[in-house]
Write a structure and sequence with these properties.
By secondary structure, this protein is of the alpha/beta class. The chain has 16 helices and nine strands. The strands form three sheets. A four-stranded mixed beta sheet has the order 1-2-3-4. The termini are far apart. About 25% of the residues are buried.
């Protein structure tokens, strides 16, 4: 039952697959321009840290053709296909690097933290796994009779274009870290896609090409020697990446387990791989570590394969802890209390000054009312509004002296409302207005007269 489940003989079209692979390895005519356009799009996406743009460029690009052709040629011992695939692979790499370099040389945008570009300079074991399984999925998609959208997914997952764009970015800056790291990632992806294609071709039992007719024979020995040349560096790289990953994991666990040591704690750490042996820099805060505490941390580090020479402490954010006597504690409390009392006294004095200022500005309505009554016995009430508190003035009455004033175009600084027991003559009104202007020392005064309701 399981054999029938995984049997692919009825789903594979070897003739069509062989033809498709032969056609897709060449970079001529439209393919050259399509590749250049895809590289520019991917470079823009990397330049602005836009993942959707990068994905779109990978869907456009035809970069997998020569790689699949190379693995297919090795699996079928097709000497001519291998050579043509390698030649077109070199053409593809050259076009990609030249296009991306020109873009980054001309682009005015220079990011402070180019995260998407940096991500293409540090390959991990996961990139190897993605390339290997992506290659298997790619050759199976090409080989089956009913085609789907697998190749699009493989193009996105294996991410062959971004490393080539990053190489161009490194060349534009003359930065070897970008150039070597990105080219390294691209070669790893290419090698494992080709290796996966080779293994899938062998599993699907594609017929071996009769190379004698081509004038050159790619013998099984030559094939295996070529495969070893490809595999051995990849395996060594994979082992190194696994070791690096394990080292990073061990460092992370060491930091997490020893986050707090006494009165100090690790607030950050950095792995420096530019020196031998690799060092782990621990950034400390709080109190300075004692020799016993450092010895304890060294012992824990050895459990994770780290020696004492690999641990570097940065204690710039720590402070020395000295014994404090009871006298110093009491003196500190007294000084703190004295500062608090001074702050309170300053606040009270400021409030007192504000209150005095407010009283000085208070409107003398009571005294002015008495003065107005001395000049006109009909005055029964007096209201004075001044400054920002003036919003509107309104009065109500049953005679012609009642006024309502609202939404004035010009709002005077002072408005006075004089209420009288009965209407007063115009001459009396003018006298009272002149008196108020002199009394309040202002020319910007508006006076209203109103008659009290009976």
């Amino acid at each position: 039952m399981f054999k029938n489940l995984v049997d692919m003989s009825e789903h594979i079209d070897q003739v069509e697959a062989t033809q498709t692979i032969h056609e897709n390895i060449y970079f001529r005519g439209p393919n050259v321009f399509i590749l250049a356009c895809a590289i520019i799009i991917a470079s823009v996406g990397l330049n602005v840290n836009s993942i959707p743009v990068i994905i779109g460029a990978m869907l456009i690009s035809p970069v997998m053709g020569p790689i699949l052709g190379f693995g297919f040629g090795l699996g079928t011992r097709d000497n001519k296909l291998v050579k043509d695939a390698l030649k077109n692979f070199a053409i593809m790499v050259a076009i990609s690097i030249i296009s991306s370099t020109l873009y980054f040389v001309l682009s005015p945008l220079n990011l402070v933290h180019p995260t998407e570009l940096l991500a293409r300079t540090n390959p991990t074991i996961y990139d190897v796994l993605i390339a290997a399984f992506g290659g298997i999925a790619g050759i199976l998609e090409i080989s089956r009779k009913k085609k789907g959208t697998v190749l699009a997914g493989v193009a996105i997952a294996t991410a062959l274009m971004p490393p080539l764009c990053t190489v161009g970015y490194g060349i534009s800056l003359l930065n070897w870290k970008y150039i070597v790291g990105a080219l390294y990632l691209f070669l790893i992806n290419s090698i494992f896609i080709a290796l996966a294609t080779f293994l899938a071709v062998k599993y699907l039992k594609y017929p071996v090409v009769a190379n004698e007719e081509q004038g050159h024979k790619l013998t099984p020995v030559m094939t295996w020697v070529l495969m070893l040349i490809i595999i051995v560096p990849s395996v060594l790289t994979a082992v190194r990446m696994i070791q690096d990953n394990n080292f990073n994991i061990n460092v992370s666990r060491l930091v997490e387990e020893n986050k707090s040591i006494g009165g100090s704690f690790i607030y950050d750490y950095k792995v420096d791989k530019s020196v031998k042996p690799v060092t782990v820099e621990l950034y400390m805060a709080g109190e300075e570590l004692s020799p016993e505490q450092k010895k304890f941390l060294y012992a824990n580090a050895e459990r994770y394969g780290l020696s004492a020479e690999q641990i570097v402490f940065h204690e710039d954010a720590t402070v020395s802890r000295n014994p404090i006597s009871e006298t110093e504690i009491v003196r500190g409390i007294y000084e703190h209390a004295e500062k608090q009392v001074k702050v309170l006294n300053d606040s009270i004095a400021a409030l007192g000054r504000e209150l005095a200022l407010y009283k000085a500005k208070a409107l003398p309505t009571e005294s002015i009312l008495r003065e107005l009554r001395a000049q006109c016995t009909e005055v029964v009430d007096f209201t004075l509004t001044q400054g920002e508190s003036l919003s509107y003035v309104a009065g109500a009455g049953n005679d012609s002296d009642a006024v309502i004033v609202a939404d004035m175009v010009h709002r005077p600084s002072t408005v006075a409302i004089i209420t009288t027991s009965k209407p007063v003559p115009s001459a009396t009104r003018e006298t009272l207005e002149r008196f108020l202007g002199a009394r309040l020392e202002t020319d910007d005064l508006l006076v209203f007269f109103r008659t009290a309701s009976k």
